[in-house]
Design goal:
The protein is of the alpha+beta class. The protein has a single domain, classed as NADH Oxidase (3-Layer(aba) Sandwich), CATH 3.40.109. The chain is 39% helix and 15% strand. It is built from 7 helices and 4 strands. It has a 4-stranded antiparallel beta sheet with strand order 1-2-4-3. The chain is globular and about 45 Å long.
């Protein structure tokens, strides 16, 4: 597949098959993410790949509880109150979750994360794998239980979560976005 076709086909997937992606596919996605540019070529992001069903479930429960308790930055109290603890899953039950962290004092942390996740999303689309950028871990990382979980995963105290990505085989075929809509371009 050509790069522009992969970019055009990429879309946010919110419904995944239970089947895990192959190790080769995962490694291709991770390598694409690792090759992303970073501000001043600092390359300080770290990637945490979670595929353990038990850890995914534990993470989903911790994020749901933190959100419901009002500890999700930028989530309204009304939206938080509407979360059904039995069915809510912030990464849409994808079999793989990629969490990106950066040092808390990294000047380009969010730009670097954007490059990492974009590379991963384009590579996944090229393989016919679905992704969805999810910010719930980032939004809930100050919650004590979520922070404890992050520490268990190996996230250092001086690191922040800058983004995460749900990854898996989509239930429905990837459909490219309407390319007629999008960012405005002005030629001068």
């Amino acid at each position: 597949m050509e790069v522009l076709k992969a970019i055009a086909d990429r879309c946010s997937v919110r419904e995944y098959k239970a089947e895990q992606i192959t190790d080769d596919e995962l490694q291709a996605i991770v390598e694409a993410a690792r090759m992303a540019p970073s501000g001043m070529n600092a390359r300080k992001t770290r990637l945490f790949v979670i595929q353990s069903p038990e850890v995914l479930e534990k993470t989903a429960r911790a994020i749901a509880a933190a959100t419901r308790a009002g500890h999700a930055e930028g989530v309204s109290a009304e939206r938080a109150a509407a979360i059904d603890m039995d069915s809510y899953n912030f990464f849409y039950h994808a079999p793989t979750l990629l969490i990106v962290t950066s040092p808390a004092d990294a000047y380009n942390a969010f730009a670097d994360c954007g490059c990492v996740l974009e590379n991963a999303m384009i590579q996944a689309a090229e393989l016919g794998i679905g992704t969805c950028w999810v910010n719930n871990v980032r939004r809930c990382q100050k919650d004590a239980a979520v922070r404890e979980l992050l520490t268990e995963l190996g996230v250092a105290e001086d690191e922040i979560v800058t983004g995460s990505l749900a990854i898996g085989y989509p239930v429905h075929e990837l459909k490219g976005k309407n390319q007629e809509k999008g960012h405005e371009v002005k030629y001068i």
